[in-house]
Amino acid sequence: MPIFATEKRWSMSFADFILQHEADDPVRLLLSRDRYPDVDIDLAVNTLEVRKKLRTKVPEWYEVPSLVYPFRLSGEQCSSSAAARYKARVALRHTARNGGILKVADLTGGMGVDAWAFAQVAEEVLYNEMQVELVRATELNFRELGIENVRFGNGRVEPGKVAEVLAGFEPDVIYLDPARRAEDGKKVFLIEECRPDVLGLLPELFAASRYVLLKLSPMADITMACKRLGAHAEEVHVVAAGGECKELLFLLDREWTGEYSLSVVENDAVLEIPGRAGNDVPSLVMPGTARESVISTGAKRSGEICLFEPGKALLKAGAFDLPCARFGLTKLGQHTHLYVGKTVPEELRPFGKVFEVLEVLPLNNQTMKEAGKRWPQAEVTARNVPMTSDLLRKKTGCASGGDIHLFGVRVDAAAGAGNYLIVTQKRYGTD
Questions:
Q1: 61 lies in the same domain as 97
Q2: Which residues of the chain have pLDDT under 70?
């Protein structure tokens, strides 16, 4: 029986096998392959392994046990359904503003999660993938998912071949997610080291489509990437989930020559930051008057002052002054990316953690020791002080856990600048 049979009876039989062996040990299944002569056991085990990742990553696919996944790595590298849908919204918005229909060419299709999301908002999608096993699996999976507006291709995207891969398809947006591993398997981060090399392909890509949507590693440097991509970089999207930066999206427009904007995305919340994250705004540090009300040694002002700790996505975007310039918070120090205020606006809350300030003490051996006795269970963070978070935890003796959080921080102020221990209680935010 062929691996990618399309008969419904085979599909249902495979689905039954997957459901029956969901909790089985993969190694035991491989060793007992002779017991299942009618099942491609290697495909089944890979599928079971990928499904474990999809349970929370792409739950819509996890709910369909008849889907097949030939490679475990593709399950690790695929987008989450939330991230894929966000890309589809970005693509749709730019086509809508130009008054046209949406046709998307996904030239690095992989497991097909992004193409699946594009297909839900586009009139037509071209899915191209150079690994034939993935193409055949995605064709089967899309039929099972009821996706009917996708063309399938199996071309290699390289210089001189873009038009050949498109094969007459005229996209409004071309999407690429270059592989970030070299031939020896090592991870790479520079754009030109990824495959395909987008920098070398840009002239051909722009000849075929006004817009190119590019996904890069969350480790990539945004400023450097935009310089290498040239003046056509119109938007950068920092996509996060659970407080962790997952991917960077670069929207390139062949007709764009201005500054790029940034958007920070945390699940369904989007914070738009026009003009290169607003980094031309001077750093706003705590003035002496603010110090008297917030950083007052020994003060206990429960409920009066909040501390905002930005998440990794907001920091990745370089929006260090945004909480001050847009939301009226006060930054503790030029290099201490923590902010205080009477309240943290709801629009900002999804992009970090919010704490209630309970007490502020000078940072010294005595206060650290006393804090450990008073709050034996607490999270501990050191920021811009001459010690690590691990050393601060050791000095306090606090066990991890609970909703109390001790911050050892440097505060810049017109009067009384120095190092402080801020005792807080978490109110809400990403974990």
A1: no
A2: 1-12, 96-100, 182-185, 189, 275-303, 413-416, 430-431
Tell me the three-class secondary structure of 313-362, residue by residue: HHHHCCCCCHHHHCCCCEEEECCEEEEEECCCCCCCHHHEEEEEEEEEEE
Does one domain contain both 42 and 97? no
Domain that residue 142 falls in: 82-278
| Same domain as 321, residue 202 | no
Long-range contacts of residues 396-403, Cβ cutoff 8 Å, at least 24 apart: 396/368, 396/369, 396/371, 396/372, 397/369, 397/372, 397/373, 398/371, 398/372, 401/377, 402/375, 402/377, 402/378
d(CA 279, CA 344) in angstroms, rounded, equals 21
Cα separation, 21 vs 11, whole angstroms: 16
| Number of domains present in the structure of the chain | 3
Domain boundary among 222, 245, 278: 278
pLDDT, tens digit (0-9, with 9 covering 90-100), for 20-73? 898 889 888 898 888 888 888 899 999 999 999 999 999 999 999 999 999 999
Residue 2 lies in a domain: no
d(CA 421, CA 403): 16
Domain-terminating residue out of 76, 100, 131: 76
The tokens for 302 are 């429960």
pTM score of the predicted model: 0.85
